[in-house]
Write a structure and sequence with these properties.
Oligomer: single chain
Distance between the termini: 24 Å
Order of helices and strands: HHHHHH
Structural class: mainly alpha
Strand content: under 5%
Number of helices: 6
Helix content: 55-70%
Number of domains: 1
Low-confidence stretches: none
Largest sheet: none
Shape: globular
Number of strands: 0
Mean pLDDT: 89
Radius of gyration: 18 Å
Amino acid sequence: MLALLIWAADEAPYVQLWPQLPWHRHVTHLGMLAVCVILAISIARPNPFSFGGARNEAYDPMRPGVTGWTRHPVLMALALWAAVHIVPNGDLAHVILFGVLGSFALAGRRLIDTRKGRLMGEDQWRALDLSRRTGPKLHRPTSGVNPVLRLVIGVSFFATLVLAHPYVIGVPAL
């Protein structure tokens, strides 16, 4: 579906809002590296605040990991993905496309918070969220391999996206 939406934006009449400048791609590359690392460190990790999450019963709010920074790291990554793609794509169709997708990611956080609060019970949700927010933002990982492996996976995913971009999206990322 995403590929179809991007294709439709490419086929829309071109209405330039700003020209693409060389530094725009650098912003996008740095942002996408962050997106890939965020996804790598958050996917398949305990996160009782968001949709999915693996082993949510093992979640420790005093060692919240990435959830110490945001309850919804996957949605944050999606919003960041959309935002950094607006920068080099300064035409109306792409600004609308990425703006809407980023807005959905941001709005989704509130919807999921409401649903999880209802499912957990508002008092339990608030207490867990307070523990998460007041817990340490940085802490020593319990495993030396897992965080490093996740970082390597994130960087590898970024490199794969850069190399595959011209074949999948039709526009070189470099």
